From TrEMBL, chain A:
Membrane-crossing segments per the record: 41-62, 68-87, 124-142, 154-178, 190-210, 243-262
PROSITE patterns according to UniProt: ABC_TM2
InterPro entries: ABC2_TM, ABC2_TM_bact-type, ABC_2_transport
GO (cellular component) term, any one: ATP-binding cassette (ABC) transporter complex
Entry's Gene Ontology BP terms: lipopolysaccharide transport; polysaccharide transport
Location of this chain's protein in the cell: Cell inner membrane; Cell membrane
UniProt keyword Membrane present: yes
Protein name, per record: Transport permease protein
GO terms for MF: ABC-type transporter activity
Keywords: Capsule biogenesis/degradation, Cell membrane, Membrane, Polysaccharide transport, Sugar transport, Transmembrane, Transmembrane helix, Transport
Domain ABC transmembrane type-2: 39-262
Automatic annotation (TrEMBL), chain B:
Region (Disordered) residue spans: 223-242, 268-314
GO molecular function (one): ABC-type transporter activity
A Pfam family reported for this protein in Swiss-Prot or TrEMBL: ABC_tran
Source organism of this protein record: Halomonas lysinitropha
Any one cellular-component term (Gene Ontology): membrane
Protein name from the UniProt record: Polysialic acid transport ATP-binding protein KpsT
Family note: Belongs to the ABC transporter superfamily.
Biased segments, Basic and acidic residues type: 268-304
Low complexity: bias regions: 223-236
Lineage, opening ranks: Bacteria, Pseudomonadati, Pseudomonadota, Gammaproteobacteria, Oceanospirillales
Gene giving rise to this polypeptide: kpsT
Origin: domain of life: Bacteria
Keyword entries, A-Z: ATP-binding, Nucleotide-binding, Transport
SMART domains associated with the record: AAA (SM00382)
Domain ABC transporter: 2-224
SUPFAM superfamilies noted in UniProt: P-loop containing nucleoside triphosphate hydrolases
Length: 269, 314
């Protein structure tokens, strides 16, 4: 809705203002994310590599990798980890986004929602880049990590990012207003990794347990992305794209509404 | 032009609601008129400035800005501590839509702020004066119609104050100023009109001198009230400095300086000994301190006398 009062001579339209804020913020975040930290680039790539290696080692030890239908274990694990990290980072980056940029709210053009959006976009781009590196690296090592259905894989990759964004919008408001929320979210990270079927396939779990686990939308998203990667992959029974998208759109809506409702409080914080 | 209609503002903090900071403010700040905001500490000057800048929203009422208004230029905020001065300037330039001429803006800011190498250091290493210089230079790089200043010039050194005042004077005609300051010299220098804030209410004065006069009335009344309740204690604390005798010639003055210097040395030695002595009562220690300060005064006076006489002879 255009604001009549701001449209006097020489003033920019709200959309122009928003665009320049996003541009400025993106450049700023990109620099601080990749350059400010010593070896920032190295860790961005090495952290998932190390994590995958450790997980593969543990799994090789337990020897449970024969139960996945039509998919090799390592590519299966990598797709799951990448997808999960994408959502987790979306959630965690949102937490610090507002406090980290509070000094910039001195300029009335900058709104609390801007750093959250920009950080998530940047995170999505970086994670996509890392994933591409992984695919290329795996191909060179002789492991087939190329998706069998590229378009669908891309689509679900984007969908997972959207869920991360929705959760990030909510956590950014809740975590800034109530700092304890941040602690809780960091705490549930690890159990969520296991409960989302990233490391262990959920197929062998008893039905009564699975019924509860399927309330977690991350399971749906990850399974559907894997189905796009591996032709003939058997998704967990009860996986539903509709449920995933309903959940994602709800989080997006709630997140944006929270940002509207608490805008002034977030600025003052 | 800025129109403020029926503005109310108060702060909320964790379910506590505080008293109104600003109550029923109705003002119109015309184009091209520079205004000084006056009032005692806590009268709501900075709050009003933040509201005008759009950093905060009023609880009731509206503010219409019909022109380009700057952010409040001052000490607090506006910079990201972990980023360098240059990165911050870049950010602000981009936010304000200067995509093409970011480099030009950076150069202008760099030239004005005179930070040298510190321009590429993180802001958190800056002193408050350096921050103020950068913030001030940054705001001048954009063509705002109205600049908001919250004690922007108060921390700078004399050269910077003069430069800042000069910069604002050059902008007269193209831009105006809404400023909070406790320095009346600057207010009189730069402002035409005044707004006086008291108990949440604002009064407009067409002439800044009238606003300053009202402000003085209030502060004088407050000082008188607190002065009568508490008898003046400060002058009695330090003993009067024995004045030097008038030196007849340069040699006389030099002899006197030597004398005073010897006195000063003994006073200092005694004072230092008193400082080390833990058994001494604070009251006793204070007398040594007073003696030390008094003899230091005398020493300075004696030096000045010698210098004055030397200059006279040359």
């Amino acid at each position: 809705m255009p604001d009549e009062t701001s449209n006097s001579v020489g003033a920019r339209t709200p959309w122009q203002v928003t665009r320049s804020v996003w541009y400025a913020m993106f450049m700023r975040e990109a620099v601080s994310r990749t350059m400010a930290n010593r070896m920032g680039w190295f860790w961005m790539i090495f952290e998932p590599v190390a994590f995958t290696t450790i997980m593969v080692a543990i799994r090789g030890f337990i020897r449970g990798d024969r139960f996945i239908v039509n998919a090799e274990y390592i590519p299966w694990l990598i797709t799951g980890l990448m997808g999960f990290f994408l959502i987790r980072e979306g959630m965690l980056r949102g937490l610090g986004a507002i406090n980290g940029n509070s000094a910039l709210f001195a300029y009335r053009q900058v709104q609390p929602v801007d750093p959250v959006l920009v950080r998530n976009v940047l995170e999505g781009l970086l994670r996509s880049f890392v994933f591409l590196l992984f695919i290329a690296g795996a191909l060179m090592l002789g492991t087939d990590l190329l998706p069998d259905n590229g378009i669908r894989a891309l689509g679900w990759w984007f969908s997972l990012w959207t869920l991360g964004l929705g959760l990030g919008l909510i956590t950014s408001v809740a975590g800034t207003l109530v700092p304890e929320v941040g602690t809780v979210i960091r705490m549930i990270n690890m159990p969520l990794l296991i409960l989302s079927g990233v490391i262990f396939p959920l197929n062998n779990l008893p039905h009564w347990l699975l019924e509860y686990l399927l309330y977690n939308p991350i399971v749906h998203g990850l399974e559907l992305m894997r189905a796009a990667f591996f032709e003939g992959y058997q998704v967990v029974n009860g996986t539903s794209a509709t449920y995933f998208w309903l959940f994602t759109l709800s989080t997006l809506t709630i997140g944006l509404l929270m940002h509207l409702r608490f805008r002034e409080k977030l600025k003052v914080k | 032009m800025i129109e403020i209609n029926g503005l109310y503002k108060r702060y909320h903090l964790q379910r506590r609601v505080y008293d109104w900071v600003l109550e029923d403010i109705n003002l119109t700040i015309p184009q091209g008129v520079s205004v000084g905001l006056l009032g005692r500490n806590g009268a709501g000057k900075s709050t009003l400035l933040r509201l005008i800048a759009g950093m905060d929203t009023p609880d009731r009422g509206t503010i219409h800005r019909h022109c380009r208004v700057s952010w409040p230029i001052g000490l607090a905020g506006g910079f990201q501590g972990s980023m360098t001065g240059r990165q911050n300037v870049k950010f602000v330039a981009r936010v304000h839509g200067g995509r093409g001429d970011v480099h030009e803006i950076i150069e202008r800011v760099q030239a004005f702020a005179e930070l040298g190498d510190a321009f590429d250091e993180p802001i958190k290493t800056y002193s408050s004066g350096m921050r103020a210089r950068l913030n001030f230079g940054l705001s001048l790089a954009f063509d705002f119609d109205i600049y908001l200043s919250d004690e922007a010039t108060s921390v700078g050194d004399r050269a910077f104050k003069a430069k800042a005042t000069q910069a604002f004077k050059e902008k007269v005609g193209e831009a105006s100023l809404v400023m909070v300051s406790h320095s009346e010299g600057i207010l009189k220098d730069l402002c035409d009109s005044g707004i006086y804030l008291k108990d949440g209410h604002a009064t407009w004065y067409d002439d800044i001198d009238d606003a300053i006069a009202v402000y003085h009335e209030e502060t004088d009344a407050a000082r008188a009230a607190s002065g009568s309740a508490e008898p003046a204690a400060t002058p009695a604390d330090s003993p009067p400095v024995t004045p030097l005798r008038e030196a007849q010639s340069l040699d006389d003055a030099r002899a006197q300086l030597r004398e005073v210097k010897a006195e000063f040395d003994t006073a200092r030695a005694e004072f230092e000994r008193a400082q080390r002595d833990d058994d001494m009562a604070p009251r006793e220690r204070q007398t040594y301190g007073d003696a030390f300060r008094a003899s230091r005064e005398r020493l300075h006076d004696a030096r000045r006398q010698v210098q004055a006489l030397q200059k006279g002879e040359e």
